[in-house]
Amino acid sequence: xxxxxxxxxxxxxxxxxxxxxxxxxxxxxxxxxxxxxxxxxxxxxxxxxxxxxxxxxxxxxxxxxxxxxxxxxxxxxxxxxxxxxxxxxxxxxxxxxxxxxxxxxxxxxxxxxxxxxxxxxxxxxxxxxxxxxxxxxxxxxxxxxxxxxxxxxxxxxxxxxxxxxxxxxxxxxxxxxxxxxxxxxxxxxxxxxxxxxxxxxxxxxxxxxxxxxxxxxxxxxxxxxxxxxxxxxxxxxxxxxxxxxxxxxxxxxxxxxxxxxxxxxxxxxxxxxxxxxxxxxxxxxxxxxxxxxxxxxxxxxxxxxxxxxxxxxxxxxxxxxxxxxxxxxxxxxxxxxxxxxxxxxxxxxxxxxxxxxxxxxxxxxxxxxxxxxxxxx
Length: 377
Ligand code: MG
Prior knowledge:
The protein is α/β, with parallel strands linked by helices and about 375 residues long.
């Protein structure tokens, strides 16, 4: 069977407060609309795609569609249809422009639809005539009515998603009956005027981007890396991650030379595009002589949080020939988690020797690599 796709992209998306159609918001290199349409464009079972848009946004959408044609190694009809006043009218107009046996109707604001879900919807529709992806709600849902509010039986509730998939003629016939009424989705129209749709398991990740916070994870994750090394000398304390470790030597530096804290600080600063620790805490400044790096790390965390970011996780590797660090790792992780305002399962520290090679292998110094992920608070 031939498969058509209709992407509903004519809404204003005002709840997202993006200052423009939310589908034009960038998720990394591409817009939300590019990702959504691209998910279908790249699927081998899809034969044509219509994108229903607000007439005033045709030019902008055309640019995005051209970008999609250039991104994928296949060529199928991909075109714009004009949306109507409501989603119901938009879909009705869009259905008239399609040629397949099956139609998948999908929200433009669901860019995370998977290849697997698309495939399953097509197969089920070929078999039984429809596919309505749904998942059980995780929240307890209450109903409100003029007589009061009460919890609904969660076992009887389903959160439905798109793509909603039907035989094109069936859903066209259902839409022919809608008149001026407005419906929240296509399955509601199908159910009222044709038949009960067949459910299929939806996907947790297939979220609809609706509110401003929905866009945070989509565009504001930032990674950072940091590296530091210090010389090992006698008559110095060895401090790693703010924890004093018994050893015959310690690290030399202007501060306490906590190489792990330093690498993590630079990773945090780098992720937030702030100046590095050399700029913030210069080793020419007597103020930082013998400084406790754990305190400096706290200051870095404060600066990063001031920029509107929080750490999601921190990962570091300590490169040291000696001493054995495994017995101290729990304490180091606990300490770092406290300093960075995350939990211990968000801190991963590994240790390695260099098999006797190089300055680390000769026990002349210790090095540390760190990476962090930040998210918008
Ligand atoms: Mg350093």
